[in-house]
Design a protein that fits this description.
DNA-binding; 248 residues; homodimer; 23% strand; 7 helices; four-stranded antiparallel β-sheet; alpha+beta
DNA sequence: GCCCAACCTTGACCCAGATCAATCGCGCCG
DNA sequence: CGGCGCGATTGATCTGGGTCAAGGTTGGGC
């Protein structure tokens, strides 16, 4: 629960890295000023738990940098990841006082938090925030449904290829690192986290990654650094349309 | 595409069966009047397709009665259900012109449709609709995440028990048919649809239902009529907390 | 009442992925 | 420098659920 206030970046919304993608994307200058008054930053270390399912939650917020996961756990310990939170993604639900899922930082993480009650008041008064939140929630619902197809119907190999595609696509969108030599990115998840994401065991994840490497679909440098020489090949392996465009 | 206007129920929003649960739940009388002007009813027969994924969609709407499903299909024919639409559930996404999923009526179905552009205009002008839609979308996202745990981590037996619990809970909420003799309801889905819901084959669904019957967890009268003598037992089989309350 | 088609059940067999187990490799700390 | 611990890999074996196949049930149409 460290609330470090000596962060290396500005606290000014205007030059926030997620200014135009987060829940505040549509806010006007005066609305941002109000948000500034109810916001605060929190930092978490890789591996740290942000909040436990069932805990009282008196804030909502956005991921500023780093990656967090939403997971559900059964009594006997089986776990399933149900959300992967990237910068600009929103955490928490207005109108709910307890967390519904475990939230864990998988890398070092910075969150921009808003005290819940004032945030709810603002949502009721200014339509821009509610509109943006609706849009983001609909996007997440689409992502969840895509994911349901992966979990319910794809083979282990297709699941891995699907996950790699998603990460590659996101990285390409953010960093435009799609050189002529293929797409290059780092896996932000351990094998175990990937297994929890995909409804597999970590052994199966490891085996399928090895198989994709052996078959030349991907190349590995270390455990985490991945090169995809032919993106359409990867999409084909994922069972998605390999038609292309800039990654469909 | 039959658009029967001789329906057996009133077209007046005030005595609509889903008046207080649908996207219009929070609307005032004057707002309802505006909605009346852009709405129309459509009926579909059991088995009929409401809309195909990718089709142009110039309406959004609510399920008034009956049940519909949202499904995704891969090129090779594997399908996964990604949504089960019950009365009051919303179909379509404001700001999107093509359907993202196949929508199919599994029973006879009545929908209350709104022409998309006027509906979007109304959403921007009256916060009540957008607020309610956000709430409903957040609920659907929670349901989707619950479902992801089912798809990713539960055994076939647990999957069936989970689905039966969900249907039983919904029926109990709607009809309060939880007599002292246990909970009684009809399955609104074929074995095949249940399989698509749960990421199983229809043979496995059939076998697991037989097994639950043999073990006394449920009783069957015909293929579809189900009695659950002990709800907490069923919840236990589903791998959920069997703690109870009126079905947790 | 009979027939047909859609739906469901059950059996036999097989395989993808889980489970159990051993080993590797690398970064960190003493 | 050596040892330790965590993550990852790889192998051997097992099994839940898929696949293929053969009936059984039921309800609607004629």
């Amino acid at each position: 629960m460290l609330t470090d206030r000596s962060l290396s970046f500005s606290h000014d919304c205007e030059d926030c890295p997620i200014r135009h993608r987060a829940v505040c994307a549509r806010c006007e200058a005066d609305e941002l000023e109000r948000l500034e008054q109810i916001k605060y930053y929190r930092k978490f270390q890789a591996g740290q738990t942000v909040i436990w399912s069932g805990d009282r939650m008196d804030f909502v917020g956005s991921v500023v940098s780093g990656i967090a996961t939403l997971t559900q756990t059964m009594e006997d310990g089986r776990t399933q990841m149900v959300g992967l939170l990237l910068p600009s993604d929103f955490v928490g639900r207005p109108g709910r006082s307890a967390a519904a899922y475990d939230v864990t930082a998988t890398t070092d993480l910075v969150m921009c938090c808003f005290r819940k009650t004032p945030f709810e008041d603002m949502m009721n008064q200014t339509p821009h925030i509610a509109q943006r939140l609706l849009e983001m929630t609909l996007d997440e619902l689409d992502a969840a449904r895509e994911w349901m197809l992966v979990l319910g119907r794809k083979t282990a190999r297709e699941k891995i290829a699907s996950l790699l595609s998603i990460i590659a696509r996101r990285d390409a969108a953010a960093n435009a690192q799609s050189t002529t030599l293929g797409v290059v990115f780092d896996l932000p998840l351990t094998r175990e986290a990937m297994a929890d994401y995909l409804g597999l065991t970590l052994e199966t994840v490891s085996r399928q990654i090895s198989a994709l490497r052996k078959d030349g679909v991907i190349a590995l440098d270390g455990k985490r650094h991945v090169t995809v020489p032919d993106m359409s090949r990867l999409l084909e392996e994922a069972g998605d349309d390999a038609d292309g465009g800039v990654f469909a």
